[in-house]
Amino acid sequence: MTIKNKQVLLANRPHGWVQESDFNIVETDVPAIKDGEVLVKNLYLSLDPYMRGRMNEGKSYAASMQINDVMVGGTVGVVVESKNPAFQVDDNVLGYFGWQLYGISDGKGLQKINVTDQIPVSAYLGVLGMPGLTAWVGLISIGQPKAGETVVVSAASGAVGSVVGQLAKARGCRVVGIAGGKTKCEYVVKELGFDSCVDYKAGHLVEDLTAATPDGIDVYFENVGGEILEAVLDRLNAHARIPLCGFVSQYNATQPHAVRNFGALLINRVKLQGFIVGEHADLFPQALQELGQLVASGQLKYRETIAEGIDDAPRAFIGMLKGENQGKQLVKLA
Known about the structure:
Elements: E1 4-10, E2 23-29, E3 38-46, H1 50-54, E4 75-82, E5 92-95, E6 102-105, E7 111-112, H2 130-143, E8 150-154, H3 161-170, E9 174-179, H4 182-191, E10 196-199, H5 205-212, E11 217-221, H6 226-233, E12 236-244, H7 264-267, E13 271-274, H8 284-297, E14 304-308, H9 313-321, E15 328-332
Parallel strand pairs: 8-9, 8-11, 9-10, 11-12, 12-13, 14-15
Antiparallel strand pairs: 1-2, 3-4, 3-6, 3-15, 4-5, 5-7
Helix pairs in contact: 2-3, 2-8
């Protein structure tokens, strides 16, 4: 019997905010696998801000998607058929099959994952996946936090920011989050253990950030850009460090925010380093060892926002870009 696949394709290149009409959902037959290949049924799909950049044309750290390509994305799933001796039926695997129900792989880049009562399969797309690794690499390798320093992280309730703050607290830092709305700020402080959280939607970002960072800022983990970056620059201490992870506030902007006080980087001799986590694979074993231990013990807390079914992926993706999710945004596929 032929297995039916459902895929979400890039239909248009967005100008400004992504629209559901920028996607096309199609149904196709899953081809028979060849020797050396495996067929994977995807269980969860990861939705991440970087995908917005891949929808554009132009130079970036990764190739642009082409019209009618399957939308890119990380997945976790289960092997349902195998002609590859390295993988058995029912193996749980982490892959990069994109926005579709099934994927075929020759085994390269496909990673077996260990699912336990403490570590569910979905965690490998979040706290133990690319977001968790991004948080660890950016904070520990680039930010290099020291006990007693003040660490600020934007998008603090998100998949990356929430891990950054908890790792910094574990290293004895004062941690201040920046998030949108009272509910997210309460989560960051009361559940994740941050010392403070600034609600950038409250209307007095500069004043609230100043009050929350009386001793200035030593490490700023940048996820957002725009007016938040501008406010942070005025609070930086000498020799501060900025791991530059993303600029989510600018991804859909038709008129990017011009930061007025970039000279603060020179005045304070600040280290600003953009990074792509995939270029730091040598650090993954160390990062995963710490993250895995913290998750298994319950010390590292995380949340997931889960959309149901691949048909809901476009709506969930747009909502994630608008900050409607809390923690990691996933789509449950099966």
